[in-house]
Design goal:
The complex is a heterodimer. By secondary structure, chain A is mostly helical. In chain A, helix 2 packs across helix 3 and helix 6 packs across helix 7. Chain A folds into three domains: 108 residues, no CATH class; 103 residues, no CATH class; 163 residues, no CATH class. Chain A is globular. By secondary structure, chain B is of the alpha/beta class. Chain B folds into two domains: 93 residues, no CATH class; 321 residues, Alkaline Phosphatase, subunit A (3-Layer(aba) Sandwich). In chain B, strands 1, 5, 6, 7, 8, 9, 10, 11 and 12 form a nine-stranded mixed β-sheet that branches. In chain B, strands 2-4-3 form a three-stranded antiparallel β-sheet. The longest helix of chain B has 25 residues. The termini of chain B are far apart. The relative contact order of chain B is 0.21. Classes of the chains: A mainly alpha, B alpha/beta. Chains A and B meet through helix 12, helix 20, helix 24, helix 25 and helix 26 of A and helix 6, strand 7, helix 8 and helix 9 of B.
Chain lengths: 497, 434
């Protein structure tokens, strides 16, 4: 895709946004892009503070996500299972394995729900979305890792160290048990190094395709031999590790894994990788011109690859607020869902069968990207199938929960959610009544301010007001208003941010 | 909301006919010129029942070519694969040198029946061993060191469907047949994502078949969505027709109309014992239904994954090839039974073959060239191209002998009736399977 030249020159692009440009409109842009929505009270709060403080606040690491009960239990059982040793009969082994898999799946789903609930909390939205961004770089998938305890730990690693220096994060990720499992380091030994991790480290985590040779991969793979995952902990098995001399990027030495990562960050391409990903995830799906990217990369190299500083520079830059980029990104399924939850003041429904499968049908399965590259995003989110799934989601959010269709586990969840006061799973009449109390033009403007990424043209604005007027006419209940609001939430303007 | 006259019309044409309000809004819609002229006013061209159709099957992960088309008589084969090499007595012999994997019995029969061709040793110069990059090269039909923004079938759609000529390298495109009305998908895929092969320079109506997506449901808000979409004036195009807003508008309007159409065909599909019950075969069955329903769509894409066999590959690979051959054979029989076989060409591809020498985990690592299959009633059956030389050292790769773009050129020129040069940007010598 061709790049869109920003109106700013490379040197100006990364300068801080002048205070006079820090308007409520700019605050909406920041909140929608860093989080999932722009709630009026948070927009007002942000606009009243200074931009650097707002950004520093948004990217303060969130506390660990408590392990859901099922996950804790699974971890215990897994340890007990390992301590017991292998059952004698093949049939028993198979039975135990299946039992573990069933429990693992259930725990994985609980983890998914728990994360969505965390991310839906506006206090944590921006940071958890950043964790999602990192998960989309350091991809691991349930499908292969199979043990959700490892995924939970992997996510916590990214959460805890995400804003540290990037090389440091890469080193930690190389020791993440989920990663060791996912990219086959587990099988990599001195006589037969497995190239999978080394390849993705260079291609998908740090340099990008075209910035290394096949030989670099082969040699780097030797340096990561002996990395193991044992009972959910990282272990380094010295006798499986290749201590010999390796030649990588033309430099020769007895490098170990960390040594290879240090070498990587001497490569010019390493400075451009994360900035490019950041731009793609948060700003625009069209690549920036090389000069703009390089100007950003150069500053990051001078900051010793400090990711916290990178984030602060990026989200306070003039470029980030360039009007050319506003309201032009397509929301990911997770963004779309959590945005709806926040915009409509709903709670995440703790039913995997509904919530997680809605995400899957829209094309984004929790912790299960299609492959090691992660989700491509942008326009690939949208096709007739995923649009149908988005529509189904909206219809679901407007339909009262039918308790008779819930199973036993779901009823337990429902009772617990009600006890916590977090059981608002569908749009209630109160939401519609509050719109009804407004003049049609005001109702239209409210929806626009709250949810539309880009300002709609006058014709659409007029059509909306007209529809609202029609929906509120007479005493026909809220049926028509409900359909109208649903339609607006499906409109292209709402699907952009 | 339940009045029959407010139900979602199933085509844009119906939308125009049924909604007086609709036409009012659409009169200033940015879509109006395109689809008013192509369907409502000019009248849609009748679906051509004799259109040639391509069904592309992706073997995702990199299929092990040497254990698919087995050079059983070559000593090198057995030297390179001491444990995962197939026994000479097990392979389904084609000639004195080659045989098929034992899972491919239906393919062996089709070879005799004249409906299967094998193009040997297909690849490209300077092979890339990254799944993503190599898939991208196959899907965009680019040189190994070149990056193209569009897929080869996307550029075919660009050419077929009018609009701005495609910018294939050095190409000047001319629309060669009647444009497809925009509420009919030009390509239908059964895979999780839109295949990059389908992405054109211009947006096209691409439809994804997936389980659960076709459940009929009340289309309550849909009419309103359509009305709102139509209320967008052309003037809002600010950033030009390639921005995400117009992309969404266009895709949504088309999706609403297409979904209805497809639902009508597949909604009544009953189980059919002639197909194996797995998702791959089911997808092919859906494709057969749609073709039988005379949908003017000319390209279908079905993906079968799991071919990345790095370890203990014998069982996995046998299973995958069985799934492939059984599904494809059932599809071909079904088409024949319905009298549609002459219209359809089915072709497989995979991002790369695997390394000739097995690895220490009884699997194979990423390699280069591999054979691909073509299936249909109007092709020259048998082996095409030349076999690779297996006289390679440990951990070395095969040198390809047929460039994959020659296969594409053959399909474009001789099957889809499109100027291959316009799509591929250069001339490639056809392979004589068509």
């Amino acid at each position: 895709m061709e790049s869109r030249t920003p109106t700013l020159a490379p040197a100006e692009a990364w300068q801080p946004l002048p205070a006079r440009d820090w308007t409520p409109e700019a605050a909406r842009h920041l909140l929608r892009r860093t989080g999932f929505s722009a709630r009026p009270e948070l927009v007002a709060q942000a606009a009243a503070a200074a931009l650097p403080e707002v950004v520093a606040h948004l990217f303060t690491p969130s506390p660990p996500l408590p392990e859901p009960f099922a996950l804790r239990k699974l971890a215990e059982e897994f340890r007990a299972f390992e301590a017991e040793g292998r059952p004698d009969s093949e049939a028993e082994r198979r039975r135990r394995r299946r039992e573990f898999q069933d429990k693992a799946r259930a725990a994985f789903e609980d983890f998914g729900i728990a994360w969505l609930q965390r991310a839906a909390d506006p206090k944590y939205s921006a940071y958890e979305k950043f964790v999602l961004f990192l998960q989309d770089i350091f991809v691991v998938a349930f499908q292969k890792v199979k043990n959700p305890v490892l995924l939970h730990a992997h996510q916590q690693l990214l959460r805890e160290h995400g804003t540290a220096a990037y090389p440091e994060l890469c080193k930690r990720v190389s020791r993440s048990p989920a990663m060791v499992q996912y990219l086959d380091l587990q099988q990599s030994r001195v006589e037969h190094p497995n190239e999978n991790f080394a390849r993705e480290l260079l291609e998908l985590f740090t340099l990008g395709e075209g910035n290394y040779s096949e030989d670099d991969i082969k040699e780097a793979a030797r340096a990561f031999t002996g990395y193991r995952q044992r009972g959910g902990e990282f272990a380094f098995v010295r006798r499986q590790h290749d201590t010999g001399r390796k030649t990588i990027f033309g430099r020769t030495g007895a490098f170990d894994g960390d040594g290879v990562i240090d070498l990587i960050f001497d490569q010019p391409a390493a400075g451009r990788f994360l900035p490019r990903e950041l731009v793609r995830f948060y700003l625009t799906d069209r690549p920036l011109p090389d000069e703009h990217l390089e100007a950003f990369a150069a500053q990051w190299r001078r900051d010793d690859y400090d990711t916290g500083k990178l984030l602060r520079r990026f989200f306070t830059s003039r470029l980030f607020f360039d009007p050319a980029f506003r309201g032009a990104m397509i929301k990911s399924p997770i963004h779309y869902y959590l945005g709806l939850v926040q915009d409509l003041d709903l709670d995440v429904a703790p039913f995997p069968r509904l919530t997680l499968s809605a995400l899957r049908q829209m094309g984004q399965t929790f912790f299960n990207p299609p492959n090691v590259r992660g989700w491509v995003g942008g326009r690939t989110w949208i096709n007739s199938t995923t649009l149908a799934a988005r529509r189904q989601l909206v219809e679901w959010l407007f339909t009262p929960l039918d308790e008779s269709k819930l199973n036993g586990d779901e009823m337990v969840e429902l009772v617990a959610a009600r006890a916590d006061g977090h059981a608002r799973f569908n749009v209630e009449d109160a939401t519609l009544d509050s719109l009804r109390a407004m003049e049609p033009e005001v109702a239209a403007q409210t929806v626009i301010d709250r949810g539309f990424g880009a300002a709609p043209p006058a014709e659409l604005r007029a059509a909306m007001a007209e529809q609202f007027a029609e929906a509120f006419r007479g005493g026909a209940g809220n049926e028509r208003a409900r359909a109208l609001l649903g339609a607006l939430l499906l409109s292209p303007h709402y699907q952009l941010c | 909301m339940n009045n029959p006259h407010t139900l979602l019309p199933s085509t844009r044409r119906e939308f125009l006919r049924t909604g007086a309000r609709g036409i009012g809004l659409l009169a200033f819609s940015r879509f109006a010129p395109d689809f008013l002229t192509s369907t409502a006013l000019a009248g849609a061209p009748p679906p051509e029942s004799d259109r040639s159709i391509l069904v592309l099957i992706q073997l995702a992960g990199g299929n092990d070519g040497l254990n698919t088309l087995v050079p059983y008589a070559d000593d090198h084969y057995h030297r390179l694969r001491p444990t995962i090499g197939l026994k000479t007595s097990d392979v389904l012999r084609i000639d004195d040198h080659h045989g098929l994997h034992p899972s491919l019995a239906p393919f062996r029969e089709m070879l005799d029946a004249g409906s299967l061709g094998v193009v040997q040793n297909v690849g490209y110069p300077n092979p890339n061993r990254s799944h993503f990059r190599s898939t991208e090269i196959w899907e965009t039909a680019s040189e190994s060191d070149d990056y193209l923004p569009s897929g080869w079938l996307g550029r075919f759609f660009d050419n077929q469907c009018g609009g701005t000529p495609a910018t294939a390298p050095g190409a000047t495109a001319t629309p060669s047949t009647t444009p497809t009305p925009s509420d009919i998908p030009v390509g239908i895929h059964a895979s999780n994502e839109v295949p990059p092969s389908f992405l054109g320079e211009n947006p096209h109506n691409i439809f994804g078949l997936s389980r659960g997506a076709l459940r009929p449901r009340h289309a309550g808000a849909a009419r309103l969505v359509e009305g709102l979409l139509a209320a967008e004036p052309a003037a809002s195009a600010g950033a030009g027709a390639d921005d995400n807003l117009s992309f969404l508008q266009h895709t949504m309007l088309d999706a609403l109309a297409t979904e209805k159409r497809i639902q009508r065909v597949l909604g009544g599909m009953k189980p059919d014992g002639a197909y194996p019950g797995d998702p791959f075969a089911n997808a092919l069955r859906g494709v057969a239904e749609l073709i039988a329903a005379r949908l003017p769509t000319r390209v279908y894409f079905v993906s079968l994954g799991g071919f990345d066999t790095h370890g203990n590959q014998l069982g996995t690979h046998a299973q995958l090839l069985k799934q492939l051959a059984d599904g494809m054979a059932a599809f071909q029989k079904d088409l024949t039974r319905r009298g549609l076989a002459d219209q359809v060409l089915t072709m497989t591809f995979s991002e790369f073959g695997r390394r000739p020498s097995e690895n220490e985990s009884k699997g194979t690592d990423h390699g280069t060239a591999a054979p691909l299959f073509v299936m249909g009633s109007r092709l020259k059956a048998g082996l095409h191209g030349t076999a690779p030389s297996l006289d390679v050292g440990a951990n070395r790769d095969l040198a390809f002998s047929t460039d994959f773009r020659r296969v594409y050129a053959t399909v474009l020129d001789r099957w889809l009736g499109c100027d291959a040069r316009a799509v591929l940007g250069a001339s490639f010598k056809p392979v004589e399977f068509l």
